[in-house]
């Protein structure tokens, strides 16, 4: 249980800081860029899960279906950014939430639900 919590926090931190560095190298696609960012965050989440399974105790190795779940979660989170009512409602509860948080939370939740 503790290993999975550490892995979850590690995934969030690594994606939050390394993700934008990767995005700088990718072409800008306008509104579709958020979906590309979601795919990158899902892959990065899965890779951190593989490394975490090697390093941490009691953490199982993620499978290909875990990557699929992370991708689906990230794309759902990215899709939510295109609905103004959703971003406005979430923004009224949590002030100043960046758009990057939506696909990141989706990728990490997709990974965690599949595990």
- Major sheet, described briefly? none
In what range is the share of β-strand residues? under 5%
- Cα gyration radius (Å): 14 Å
Strands, count: 0
Low-confidence stretches: none
The end-to-end span amounts to 12 Å
Note the overall shape: globular
Counted by DSSP, the helix tally is: 5
Helix content: over 70%
Structural class: mainly alpha
Q: N-to-C SSE series?
A: HHHHH
- Overall average residue pLDDT: 91
What would your notes on this structure say?
This protein is mainly alpha-helical. It contains five helices and no strands. The chain has helices at residues 2-23, 33-55, 64-80, 84-93, 101-114. Helix 2 (33-55) packs antiparallel against helix 3 (64-80). The model has no long low-confidence stretch (mean pLDDT 91).
Strand and helix map with partners:
Elements: H1 2-23, H2 33-55, H3 64-80, H4 84-93, H5 101-114
Helix pairs in contact: 1-2, 1-5, 2-3, 2-5, 3-5
Task: Spell out the key features of this protein.
mainly alpha, single chain, 115 residues, globular
């Amino acid at each position: 249980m503790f290993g999975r919590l550490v892995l979850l926090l590690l995934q969030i931190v690594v994606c939050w800081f390394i993700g934008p560095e990767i995005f700088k190298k990718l072409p800008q696609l306008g509104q579709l860029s958020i979906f590309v960012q979601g795919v990158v965050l899902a892959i990065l989440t899965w890779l951190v899960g593989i490394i975490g399974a090697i390093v941490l105790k009691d953490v199982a190795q993620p499978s290909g279906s875990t990557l699929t779940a992370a991708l689906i979660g990230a794309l759902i989170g990215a899709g939510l950014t295109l609905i103004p009512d959703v971003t406005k409602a979430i923004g009224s509860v949590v002030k100043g939430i960046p758009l990057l948080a939506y696909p990141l939370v989706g990728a990490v939740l997709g990974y965690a639900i599949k595990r």
